[in-house]
Amino acid sequence: MSSSERGPSRAPVTLRVNGSLRDVDLEPRTSLLDALREHLQLTGSKKGCDQGTCGACTVWVDGRRVLACLTLAVTCEGHDVTTIEGICADGEPHPMQHAFVEHDAFQCGYCTPGQIMSAIALIEEGNATTDEDIAEFMSGNICRCAAYPNIRAAIREVRDAAN
Ligand code: FES
Ligand code: FES
User: Which phi and psi (to 5°) does residue 52 adopt?
Assistant: First the structure.
């Protein structure tokens, strides 16, 4: 049987996701988003555009936000990947999750995991000082339901509680 008849080749990859080591066999071209959703059944990270324009797939790699649809899974070996499923502490929702609920910062909810991953990172980055900064540095996360004012209110609340 030729290699083309066997289909694309796969290679073993070990990913550390939400603190756990996970072994998967992946094609080298597999995106981190597909690895998470299709191979590790972590479906919290959403696929909106699959081309880097909507932010629905935002996760953290070594604490920095990245677009999982534009990141090759194999490049994440040896790094810490955090998804929306990994931000709870002791089973308690993250304060940003509470704030999104409190401020009604979503409608359909499809963009929400990516919004929350970006929102937490935004405060860590020091880019949530003003409403203008919040809008600018959250501009990679699109919300088709236009919940932007409520999202900014949730971010302000968590920012202010941290100060
Ligand atoms: Fe990754 Fe849209 S799915 S940016
Ligand atoms: Fe619907 Fe943002 S809540 S896309």
Answer: 80, 20
